[in-house]
């Protein structure tokens, strides 16, 4: 995925890329659960519109957690669907980068 500097736009592009890959995966018992969890986690990475500094920190922590969960689910998707490695690896990498970005925001904001 190309580097994006608008974090809101970047997280939206990530969620859309997750949906596109999930639509390609075979429909079977394992993938149904993995896809559901991956889409849920990737779609929850958004931290705009915080009301206070405390709210901001809470939202950033949630974003970091959801990015970490997205990475986890895509590692499981990859293990169940090795033929999709080329499509899955960039999503794992992007989830890792988002996790690191939100972690850095937390460290620099305290």
Give the helix proportion (percent range): over 70%
**Class by alpha and beta content:** mainly alpha
Strand content: under 5%
Number of helices: 4
Radius of gyration: 14 Å
Would you kindly provide a written description of the structure presented here, covering whatever features stand out?
The structure is a single chain. Helix 1 runs antiparallel to helix 2, helix 1 packs antiparallel against helix 4 (85-109) and helix 3 packs antiparallel against helix 4 (85-109). The chain has one domain. The protein is mainly α and 110 residues long. The chain is elongated. It contains four helices and no strands.
Q: SSE layout and pairings?
A:
Blueprint: H1 7-24, H2 29-42, H3 53-80, H4 85-109
Helix pairs in contact: 1-2, 1-4, 2-3, 3-4
List keywords for this structure.
mainly alpha; 77% helix; elongated
Provide a compact summary of the structure:
The chain is 77% helix and 0% strand. With 110 residues, the protein is mainly alpha-helical. It has one domain (7-43, 70-109).
């Amino acid at each position: 995925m190309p580097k994006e500097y608008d974090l809101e736009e970047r997280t939206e592009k990530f969620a859309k890329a997750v949906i596109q890959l999930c639509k390609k995966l075979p429909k079977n018992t394992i993938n149904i659960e993995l896809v559901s969890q991956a889409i849920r986690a990737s779609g929850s990475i958004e931290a705009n519109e915080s009301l206070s500094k405390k709210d901001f920190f809470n939202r950033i922590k949630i974003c970091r957690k959801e990015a970490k969960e997205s990475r986890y689910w895509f590692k499981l998707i990859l293990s169940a669907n090795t033929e999709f490695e080329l499509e899955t690896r960039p999503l794992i990498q992007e989830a890792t980068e988002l996790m690191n970005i939100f972690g850095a925001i937390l460290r620099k904001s305290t």
